[in-house]
Amino acid sequence: MTYLPKCHIFYRFLPIMSRKIAYLASFFLVLALFGCADKYQSYRSNYPFKSPNGQPDYTNLDYWAAHPDKKDPSDSIPGPLRTETRDTLADVFFLHPTTFTDKKEAARPNAAIDDDYINAKTDYSTILFQASAFNQQSRVFSPRYRQAHIGNFYGADSALAVQALQLAYADVRNAFRHYLQHYNNGRPIIIASHSQGALMAIELLKEFFDNKPLQRQLVVAYVVGWPLETKSFNSLTACVQPTQTNCVCSWRTFKMGYEAPWVKKEKERAASIIVTNPLSWTTDSGFVSRKANKGAVLTRFNKVFTGAADAQIQQGVIYSYRPHFPGSFLYRTDNYHIGDINLYYLNIRENVRTRLSAFLNKGTSNNQSVR
Q1: What pLDDT digit, counting tens, does each position of 5-57 carry?
Q2: Are 220 and 355 in contact, with CB atoms under 8 Å apart?
Q3: Residues sharing a CB contact under 8 Å with residue 251, sequence separation 6 or more, in sequence order
Q4: Cα 304 to the center of its chain, rounded Å
Q5: From 114, 222, 271, 322, which residue has the greatest number of CB atoms within 10 Å?
Q6: Domain chopping of the chain, boundaries
Q7: Among 96, 120, 101, which Cα is nearest to 43's?
Q8: Residue 197: burial class (beta carbons within 10 Å; 0-12, 13-18, 19+)
Q9: What is the Cα–Cα distance from 161 to 110, expressed in whole angstroms?
C-alpha cells in the first residue's frame, strides 16, 4: 500500500493568497534573482527521454536531476571555491522546489516527468544554484518527481491540490526507497529541500526517520522555505547549535518589517514554528549582522557576494534588511523566498561540513566506547 501524505499544513495556505498575487510574486522574484531571458530553452535538447507510462523509473539516470553516477549541474562549484578540499563522506538527498509555474499549464495539476523544458529549468536553476551548496562533502542525489503546479498552492480546489501533492510525494517516496536499496549502504544522510520540496521532505522525515532506526544515520535535515511546526515530529527536534546532529533546520526569509498574510495567520493561531538562523545556526532571536554572511551565490554562479544579507528570527520566520549585491536597489520585493538558500550559500556549505564532522566524530567515539 502506497503511503500518501495528508498535507495538513497545505490546507491552511489555500484561502490566504490569491493566485494573481502568487504569480506576480513569483515572476518578480525570478526576474530579480535569475534574470530576464528564458535561458532554459537552449537546454531542452539535453532531455529527449520519454517515459513509456508517464511514471519515473529511478533505475534510469534520466529520472534523476542529480546523481553521483552522472555529470549534472549539482556538481558545479562557484569559481572562488574551486580550491577547497572536497570529499564524499555523506549523501545528500535534495528535494527541489516548484519549477512547474507556467500559467498556461495551470490546468495540469502535476508536471509530466519527461517534460524537457521543466527538466531543463529544474537542472539549470535549483539544481545548479541550490543543490550545489551541498556538494563539498557529499554525493548529491535529487530525483525528478511529478511536482504539483504552483497554482495548486493558491487555488480554490483543495481536494484536487491535495491529490496533486500526494502524487508528487509518491514519486519522492519511491525515489528515496530506491536510493536506500541501491546506494546508501549505511552512509550518513543529509536531507536538503526548498519550498514544495520542503513539504515533501517533512513527509519523508515522518515516514522514514522520525523515531525510526534510520534516524541514527541522519546528520541533519534542511527543510527550507516551508513552515515546519514543532509538533510535526515525535523524536526529531530543532537544531539549536551549529554542531548539533540528528536534528532539523528550517527558515523562510522576508524583508525586515514585512508580515506576509500566511505568517500573520500562523501568529493568530499561535503556531509554534521551527526557525533556524542560517548565520548563527541557533534558534535565538538575536540579530546577526551581514558581516557574518560568508557569501551569497545569486544570478552569476561564479560570483560570490560576501555580506549579502543579515538575519534575525521573529514571528516564526527569518527577517533580513534589503540584501546587498550589485543592483540590489532594484530589488523591491518583500518576500525573499527564492533566496532562502542562495542568500546564505556559503554559510550553509560551511554548516554542512561542521555538522558532518561532528556526526562522524560522534560515531568514532561511540565505536571506541564499544571496544
Answers
A1: 344 434 343 333 444 444 444 444 444 444 445 899 999 999 999 999 999 99
A2: yes
A3: 224, 275, 276, 277, 278, 317, 318, 340
A4: 20
A5: 222
A6: 8-370
A7: 120
A8: buried
A9: 9
Cα–Cα separations (whole angstroms), residue 63 to 51, 103, 180, 266, 281: 9, 25, 16, 36, 34
The enclosing H or E element of 259 equals: none
Distance CA(270)–CA(144), nearest Å, equals 35
29's CB contacts (< 8 A; 6+ apart) are 333, 335, 337, 338
Residue 177, CA distances (Å) to 4, 52, 61, 188, 249 in order: 14, 21, 15, 15, 23
CB 208 within 8 A of CB 176: yes
129-142: pLDDT as tens digits: 999 999 999 999 99
Predicted confidence (pLDDT) per residue in 195-231, tens digit:
999 999 999 999 999 999 999 999 999 999 999 999 9
Give the C-alpha separation, 143 to 111, whole Å: 14
SS3 state of residue 17: coil
User: What is the C-alpha to C-alpha distance for residues 1 and 128, in angstroms, rounded to an integer?
Assistant: 35
Q: How far apart are CA 266 and CA 108, in angstroms?
A: 29
**Looking at this protein, which amino acid is placed at residue 127?**
I
Running DSSP on this structure, what letter comes out for residue 192? E
Nearest C-alpha neighbor of 318 from the set 258, 247, 248, 245: 258
> What would the pLDDT profile of 277-313 be if each residue is shown by its tens digit?
999 999 999 999 999 999 999 989 999 999 999 999 9
d(CA 40, CA 103): 17
| 8 A C-beta contact, residue 344 and residue 296 | yes
CA angle 277, 281, 287 (to 5 degrees): 45
Q: How far apart are the first and last CA of the chain?
A: 42
Determine contact, residues 256/284, Cβ cutoff 8 Å. Answer: no
Q: Which helix (H) or strand (E) holds 31?
A: helix 19-34
In the 8-state DSSP scheme, what is residue 321?
Answer: P
CB atoms within 10 A of CB 191: 26
